[in-house]
Each structure stands twice: as C-alpha cells, then as structure tokens.
Design a protein that fits this description.
heterodimer; A: mainly alpha; 18 helices; B: mainly alpha
Amino acid sequence: MKKYLAYAFGTFGHDAFYNTLSIYFMMFITSQLFTSGADEKMVGIVTSIIVIIRVGEIIFDPMIGGVVDNTNTRWGKFRPWILIGSIVSSIGLIFLFSDYGGLTFSHPTVYLILLAITFLLIDVFYSFSDIAIWSMLPAISIESKVRTRFGTASRLGSTLGAQIVIVIITPAIMLFSHWFSKVPFGQQTHAGWIGYVVIVALLCTGGALVTCLNIKEQTNLIRKNTKHTGLKDVFRAIKNNTQLLWIAASYFLFAFSYVVTNSLLMYYFRYRLGNAGAYTWVGVITCILGVVSVSIYPLLEKIIRRKAVYVGGIAFMLIGYVIFIFAGQSLGLVLLAVSFYFFPYPLIFLATLMTITDSVEYGQLKNGTRNESVTLSVRPLIDKLAGAASNGIVGIVAVAAGMTGNAKPSDISAHGVF
Amino acid sequence: MFYIPLILLIIAALIFFFKVTLTEEKHDEIVKELNKRLEKDESTDPDSAVSDDNNFVAPTTVKTGL
C-alpha cells in the first residue's frame, strides 16, 4: 500500500506541475507581466516561442526514452532521471514566472532569449522525468496484475494533481498576494504568483523524492536482457514492435478525437447554449467521474479484461454522442451526454497504458533486446501529438462554423455545429 | 462537425478490437517463453552474460506465432 501511495504522490506533483506550466503560464504572462495593450506584440512572441518548443520537443521523446534505457547507475536507470528532471524543471519554473530581475522591460530581447532557454530546459527535463516515472511500470514487476495496480495508482495521482491545480490556484494566489504584498484579499500580485509557483515546485520535487525513496525496479532475468540503444535502435524498437504500433494507431485516433471533442464542447457551451459559465459543470463532472472510474479499473480489468474495457469504453462514449446529438439546447441532456462521454476516458487511458507496458516484453521477444523507456515514451508522444493536431483543427472548424468573437447562439445553426 | 470525432472513435475501437492481440493471457505466455529462452541461453553459455547478446537468436529467425 505504501508503495502505491508513494508512486501516486510522484505523479501527483508531476501533473500539478504540468498543468501549471501548460495552462497558467500564459495566464500569468497576460495578467501580470504584460498588462498594457502595447505589450500585445510581446505576448504574441512568447506564445510563438512556447508553441515552437513544445511541438519541436515531441519528436525527441523516443530519444529521451533511449537515453533513460541506456542509463545504468547504482540507483537503477529511472530514479536519477526522475529526480534530476523534477529538480531542474522546478527551478526553471520559478524563473519562468518572474520578470528576470526586470529584464522583461529593460531588455526585452535578452528577456525573450532567456525565456526561450528556460522553457526549453523545463520542457526537456520535464520530459525526462515524465518518461522515467511512467516507464518504471514494466520494471516494477513482470506480472500484468501488479503493473495494473501501480498503473492505477499513478493515474489516480496524476488526475488529482492535475485537478487540484485548477481548484486551488486562484485562492492560493490571492492568499499569498495578501501575505506577501499586503494587498486586500482578492487581489493578485506578482509575489502572490511566485508563492504559488514555489508550492507547485515543492510538490513536484517532493513527490519525485517520495517516489524515488520508496519504489525500486526489479532485477530479474528478463530485465537483464538489454543492450546499448543507439539512435537507429530507438526507431527499430518502435517499428518492429507491431503490437505497440497498432495500439499507438488506435490510441492516436482516440486521443485526437477526445481532445477535439473537448475543445468543441467549450465552444458549444459558449455559442450554442449561450452559457459559458455552465462549462464549469463539465469540469466538476469530469473530476468526480474521473476519480470513480480510475478506481474501478483494476476490478473491471479482472472481470472483463482490458480489450473489453477499451472497446466497451468507446461504446459508452458513442452513447454520449448520440444523446448529445439529440440534446439541442437542453443543458440537462448535454450534461448527461457529457457524463457518458467522460466517464470511460480514464479507463481507456489505463487499458492503453497497461497494453503498452506489456508490449515491452512483446518487443523484447521480437527484437531480442529490451527497451522499457523507448516503448513507454510512445504514450506521452501520442498524447502530445494529438493535442497539437487538434489545436490546429479546432481553430479552423470554429471559424468555419462561425463560432468566433461575439457571435450569438442564434447566429449559429445546428447544421453548422454538426 | 461532431461527426468527425465520432467516426475516429469507431475506427479506434475497430483497430483495437481486431489488431491488438496482446491480451493479459498472451502476455503471460510471452513472459514464460522469454524466461525459457533466456535460461537456456544462460546455461549454454555461462561465460557471457545474457545481455552480451552473442548467442541470442536473431529476431528474424524466430517465429513463435505470438
């Protein structure tokens, strides 16, 4: 039990960190750093830098997996990367949420260069610890059953970590602003943001430390069957693992579809229902159902096996879609559809994760050598790819359907939405 | 436009259903097979560690039906 908690604590801090970086950094930039209209150009440049680094980093994930696979220390191959990755990216995060000692305004060009370097370092080191922490799964045990328990624990931790950030960020910043800057409670200051970011950095590093102190990789005959992974070997390990490729193909379509639907929903609430505020309910529903569905995964897997979990989960989502199509402007029906749609998501994620974890041995049998991190790096890679691809598509679709700016629900036809 | 993600979901389910054969049971078999091979490998060649890969059967020659 202690080990599951330790693993969950690691992914908790890890995802709290990720959400802070991916959602709230831009909010900080626009609400604290560049507040006047004249700074619009800087906001644009910062946004471009971030997008370029994030998209560019994706292709390096398998190579990062290769580096982790080649690591051999007395603490194993994962723990050094989990710890180093978390510490470096946490320190980077604190710098990122600052004005670099005033350089932001005195020397904007220097600031932008420093920001790009910091963001690149954070992104790369975060990926190291991300890949290392998730690819420990095939190393903790060779048995599917034990892996499932650890996988479930880590997903529970990461879900809670990602959600907690959304819940606590505003009150935390207000509280720290009140303490540090002596402003009336309710206002946000730069010092308040820094206080919040330090907490997230501590959660991430602390969680990594707890995981590293409590979780050990197993030593056994199968795990010893490795050799040095060169650049070509990285791609061979993925290409020859046909099961991994099929899972990846299926999961990419799934993840892409999921992210697209997610963003379309936001538009739907705003422009079709004319009730952007009600979108908060989607967050509440996802959060509660998410925790329930992660928790029942091991039981479900035992009863119906993971293939049925994956395919059945998608069937559930399709029911959600059908309800949605008939829901029109009824908030109740839309929320019912949303519940059907979001409930299976973590189950499908876990079914995928566990199958990818088990595909390590499949690849080992085919390739004659074992690649844990390279194999497991495929999952975050697909999630990132799907996110990037959907960003592009959704923008195009929203414009095509007329859901931009101040358009009203009545302007958008049902035909345009579907 | 909600139909596009809907169709993608169906394709995803079909691929997983027909193409992903790596079930929990299949994984158990693979682990047994790996253990058997690696043990054999170790006993026939005690000087070299398994990881040295000298005696390891080339993947192309292995057809196990897995």
